Structure formats: C-alpha cells, structure tokens
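REQUEST ID: PR-0412
SUBMITTED BY: lab tech R.K.
PRIORITY: routine
TASK: structure prediction, single protein chain
INPUT:
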Amino acid sequence: MQRVLVMGCSGSGKSTFAMALARKFGLPYVSIDALFWKPGWVEPDRETFGQSMVSEAGKPAWIMDGNYTSHLGGELRRERADTVFWFDLPRRVCLAGALTRIAKTYGKVRPEMAPGCPEQFDFGFLRWIWNYRAKHRPRQLAFLAGLRPEQRLVTFTTRRQADAFLATAGA
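STATUS: complete
OUTPUT:
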C-alpha cells in the first residue's frame, strides 16, 4: 500500500483509521477536510481546492481521508490509489460517532481539520449524516465501481472490522 483512500460517512471513524494506518505504515496522512476548509469554516473556490487535491494525489505515497469525489482531483485520486478502504456503517453508528466527537472536542480544532475550524454543533452536518445512505452512498458506490480489478477495495461494515484490520496489518 502506497496510495490509499479512506472513504465513508462522516462519523464512521475513517479519520481515526486513516491516521492510525499512516502511522503504522509510515505514510503521509492527508486530510481532505483540512485541504477543503478555510479558517472559520469558509469553503474555498472549487478551482483552488481541486488544484490542492491534484497536487496531493500526484505525490508518490499518501493515505487520504475524505470523500469529495465530485471535485477536481476525485478521479485522479481513484486512478492513483492502490487501495481503498470504505466505511459502510449504519446511520446510527455514524450519528453516534459524530455526536461523541462533538461532545469530546467541542470548541477545539481536531488534528485532521484545517486551522481555525473548531468543532461545533451543526444541524446541517448532522442532517448530511442522516441523509448519507439515501443521497451520498449511491454516489460513493458509483465512484467505487470505477476501480480497476488490480485495485484493492476493503469494505468495513463495523468499526470492529477496521480495528481488526489495523491489529493485523503489516504483521
């Protein structure tokens, strides 16, 4: 594994997994949320963000955590990835994960976020998680369907599966 995508619904545990995997394999960790957001939770223009993703995807090794498949760079990330981990967890698990994270880190900037973007309670974000399976999951499935046969796709339907993978990876 040299170029790894970690994808799935917010609150699924993908950032925690991606950071742990990067540490375990000594690969650079790239948070797409950190590339996307500007201080104060301001969205960048699509071109600037897309160029950032193209730049990161062009590097020889990385573990990228995040979705953003419809932006410039989404196709390139899929094309260059040798492995994709997809967190396909139930809605209740993702909501609980997001709410727990909010409670633990409220007002603080998490390691995988952009500077100036402290954790906050956001009904729009929780609605995004609630609607993920109906609205966003089909797009992720279509994105994943574009993987080539030699690319590895690992799907986790529980966090326990992700933890087990980490425990045995590289062993």
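NOTES: DSSP finds seven helices and five strands in the chain.
REVIEWED BY: pending
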